[in-house]
Structures are given as C-alpha cells and as structure tokens.
C-alpha cells in the first residue's frame, strides 16, 4: 500500500495507561474521526521507522472497530508482545468473529474487549477487558473470567484507582493526574516558597552557587538530581557526588531543564511516581519539537520548552497560575502562554494540550510533522520516567 498523502495522515491522541504505582505501562491509540478505518490509521502511524523502539517498553493498545474485516496479513508487521488489539464487546457476539479472534490469540496476539462481553470474551480468546469504571464497576465475574490485565478508564482520582484495584483492575487511564489528592499537592508553606524561589532562580539563569544553596535545603530534590546524573542515561565511568559535578556533566542548559522536571518528581512522599512528571515531560518536549519544526530560533525553542513544563505548575503547587507567574521572572511570551494561551507560544501550547485539524492548519503544521513531535515527546517522557 502506498503512503497516504500528508493531508490525510491520521491524527491520534495517545492516552497513557498506568499501573497502580502511577508508572506508564501502555498507550492507547485514539484516532480522530476523520481517520477512516481506525486500525488502518494506526498501522500508518506504526510504520514510522523505529516506532516500537521509541515507545519501548510500553504496550500499544490499538482500536479494531471491525474485527470481521481484520486479516492476519495486517498483523504480520506488529510484534505480538507489544501490541494489544482492542475490540468492541458488541462485535464479539458473532461466531465468525469469535473464531477469527481466537485464532489470532492462538497465534500470540493479545485481545482486549472494550466493555463486558461475558462468555463471548472467552470465545474470542481475550485476555483482558477495557471498562469505563468512572462511576459503576462491572460485575465481579466479568473480570474473573479473563487473566488480565484489565484496564479501567475514566479514572478521575487516585482514590477511584484504589477502589478499582480492589475490584480486580491493574491498568488505569484518565485525568487523575490533574486531580491529585489535596494533602499531597503543595506540601507545607516553607516547601512551596522554596520551590517558587528555585523556579525564579532558574527563570533568570541564576548563578550555580545560588542554586546550590537552595538545593541543599531540599534533600529530596538533591537526591533526584544526583540519581539522574548517575543513571544509565549518562553512562558515566565514575559516580557523581556533588552538585558542582552535576553541573559540569549536564551543562547549564540541560541542568535547568532537568531541574524543572525534577520539581515534579519531588512532590510524592509515599513512594509512588508522580503522574504529573511524564505529562510535563511530554508537553515540554513536544513544544520544543514543534517550535523547531516551525523554524523558531534557539531561544524561542527554549521558551517553548519552559512553557510546556511550567503549564502544570498550578496543579503541582495547588495555586492559581497568576500567583505562580507573579513570583517568577518569566519572559512576557511565556507569561501570556501560561495565563491566557495567547500569542504564538500560547497557541502552540493549546495545540499540544488538545490538537485538532483546524488548529494544525492555522499553525502551519502538517499532521505527519505533528506525529513525529508526539513520538519524540513520548519517547523522551518514557526515558525521563525511567531515569528519575
């Protein structure tokens, strides 16, 4: 099959799937309405060179709206150990579909039923269910019949996730990261003031010694920084033990970027990964990649990164963005983007938060370029999460 025209390249929203520890384990592919056959559109995206390496080790959950039309030849290029075929429960009632999917399951491909299908799920060879459990739980027997992992969607809080764990779910997706528990968002007043002070120093490119003074007052942040530079990502021959050494290894520009992200890592005190961290990494990396694709200057690319990573600070600190911005010395373009999604930087941030064809056309970004930026951003976020 020949490659599609750039204008018809599919748009996809990648939704992260987490385990009970807030660690990413998979991505669901949600294709735009104008993509035609969702599975074929997903195949187009997965033909990107090294796409599975970029998204490793995460599984890819692909929509198969019409399993009756699915052929084994279409699956030949997909690694069974990395791909989950998501099939609507309603499509499983037909015997030919059951036999076809069971055959694919026997060949090693994993089947996930979207909804509750009863015995039909077993006849399809399905291992797991994908259920919207935001309000109502499925019958207990529905989850017991398949080995899992079962995916609960619509998760709006960590409390709901805990309830779903008890019910038998082990994978979760939703906007729960945007609604952290009230007792863990901002920490005490002293900690919040220290964070804002550090952000201010980073924003004005302060002297390393000033940064070091504040870092020494925040053992958790210092720990995460040293853990990062000593990780496999840098492959150093000898361990780093001091902040000064860390600066020499990372360089000023990279140090600022990593510290901005590490602010998200330091907030969890219960051993759980902070679900905001990879989201901030995605936004920052995608903003930078798109600004580069648009031909923006290096300084503008840096501001795009900052706007992306700072765009979740109001959630992290449980403070109005106006108060956060007032405490920092940010460039006016970044301020406009964070407060009102205004100006070129703000429009780009809005596009990263919620893309659509009209917005891409207005920004002068073709769909294939946008997918490349998405892929790069998720790859970086995965690496960040594994190394921090």
UniProtKB/TrEMBL annotation:
It comes from the Bacteria. Gene3D superfamilies: Hypothetical protein af1432. Residues 188-379 form the HDOD domain. InterPro entries: HDOD, RNase_Y/CdgJ. PANTHER family: CYCLIC DI-GMP PHOSPHODIESTERASE CDGJ, PTHR33525. This is HDOD domain-containing protein.
């Amino acid at each position: 099959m020949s490659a599609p025209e750039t204008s018809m390249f599919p748009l996809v929203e990648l939704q992260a799937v987490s385990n009970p520890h807030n660690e990413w384990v998979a991505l669901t592919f949600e294709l735009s309405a104008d993509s035609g056959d969702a599975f074929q559109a997903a195949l187009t995206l997965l033909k990107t060179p090294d796409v599975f390496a970029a998204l490793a080790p995460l599984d890819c959950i692909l929509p198969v709206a019409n399993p009756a039309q699915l052929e084994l030849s279409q699956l030949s290029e997909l690694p069974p150990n990395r791909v989950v075929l998501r099939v609507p429960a309603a499509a499983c009632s037909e015997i030919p579909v059951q036999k076809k999917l069971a055959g694919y399951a026997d060949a090693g491909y994993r089947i996930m039923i979207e909804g509750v299908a009863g015995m039909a799920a077993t006849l399809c060879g399905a291992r797991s269910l994908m259920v919207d459990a935001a309000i109502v739980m499925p019958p207990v027997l529905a989850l017991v019949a398949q080995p899992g992992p079962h995916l609960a969607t619509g998760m709006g809080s960590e409390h709901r996730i805990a309830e779903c764990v008890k019910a038998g779910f082990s994978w979760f997706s939703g906007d729960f990261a945007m609604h952290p528990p009230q007792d863990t968002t901002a920490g005490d007043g002293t900690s919040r003031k220290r964070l804002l002070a550090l952000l201010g120093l980073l924003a004005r490119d302060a002297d390393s010694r000033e940064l070091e003074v504040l870092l020494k007052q925040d053992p958790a942040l210092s720990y995460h920084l040293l853990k990062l530079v000593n990780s496999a990502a840098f492959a150093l021959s000898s361990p780093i033990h001091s902040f000064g050494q860390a600066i020499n290894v990372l360089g000023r520009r990279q140090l600022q970027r990593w510290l901005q992200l590490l602010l998200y890592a330091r907030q969890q005190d219960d051993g759980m990964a902070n679900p905001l961290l990879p989201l901030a990494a995605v936004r920052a990396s995608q903003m930078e990649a798109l600004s580069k694709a648009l031909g923006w200057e290096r300084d503008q690319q840096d501001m795009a990164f900052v706007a992306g990573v700072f765009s979740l600070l109001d959630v992290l600190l449980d403070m109005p963005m106006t108060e956060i911005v007032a405490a920092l010395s940010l460039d006016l373009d970044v301020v406009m983007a964070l407060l009102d999604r205004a100006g070129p930087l703000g429009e780009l941030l809005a596009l990263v938060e919620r893309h659509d064809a009209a917005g891409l056309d207005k920004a002068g970004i073709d769909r294939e370029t946008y997918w490349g930026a998405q892929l790069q951003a998720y790859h970086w976020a995965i690496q960040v999460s594994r190394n921090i």
